[in-house]
């Protein structure tokens, strides 16, 4: 591939919409079972928040084998909060995703899942998804629409370089947020101490 070649998402990845709601009708809050990722579990940092996951009983999972997740998959919201997405980490392998999501699984070795996640989360691509979405009470994206999304595909070394740079920026931003949070706590504590002395 030459630098910046344009391809479609369908050329790079297999796109599988989530199972129909009827296949997940036994979904519940019990502590046992296989977790199912829903749009509300996806964070702005492209991770899955595991604190409030609902689960499907183990005896219901066999028929949903084709909807299991593995490391490097991307879960993308295709109904409702369009475009929210999460990159699946190793500890989430074997989990499922619901009907409002689609799984984007890289084919071959042309694209790094981390690069694809960053690319799909860019403001330009997010706007393009909204522009192409099917109208209705709830806007939606199907596999065909997602498959036709254009992707700028640099060589793997450039993809890796971008992923590393963004990871460094994210880490720096996290340190600054944590510092700001600690300073806010200190400010409130000082104010409370001052008022207690009055």
Explained architecture:
Helix content is 35%, strand content 18%. Strands 2-8-5-6 form a four-stranded antiparallel β-sheet. Strands 4-3-7 form a three-stranded mixed β-sheet, with no helix packed on it. Strands 1-9 form a two-stranded antiparallel ribbon. The radius of gyration is 20 Å and the shape is globular. The chain has 198 residues and is of the alpha+beta class. It has helices spanning 9-12, 113-121, 123-132, 143-147, 156-197, and strands at residues 5-8, 13-17, 34-37, 54-56, 74-77, 85-87, 96-97, 101-106, 150-153.
- Whole-number average pLDDT? 89
Shape: globular
- Major sheet description: 4 strands, antiparallel
User: Taking strands numbered 1, 2, ... along the chain, how are they ordered across the largest sheet?
Assistant: 2-8-5-6
Helix content class = 25-40%
User: Structural class of the helix and strand makeup?
Assistant: alpha+beta
* Strand coverage percent: 15-25%
What is the N-to-C order of secondary-structure elements (H for helix, E for strand)?
Answer: EHEEEEEEEHHHEH
Total helices: the number is: 5
| Low-confidence regions | none
Multimeric status of the protein: single chain
Q: What is the C-alpha radius of gyration, as a whole number of Å?
A: 20 Å
- Distance from N terminus to C terminus (CA atoms, Å) equals 71 Å
Tally the beta strands: 9
Describe how the helices and strands are arranged.
Blueprint (H helix, E strand, L loop, with lengths): L4 E4 H4 E5 L16 E4 L16 E3 L17 E4 L7 E3 L8 E2 L3 E6 L6 H9 L1 H10 L10 H5 L2 E4 L2 H42 L1
Parallel strand pairs: 3-7
Antiparallel strand pairs: 1-9, 2-8, 3-4, 5-6, 5-8
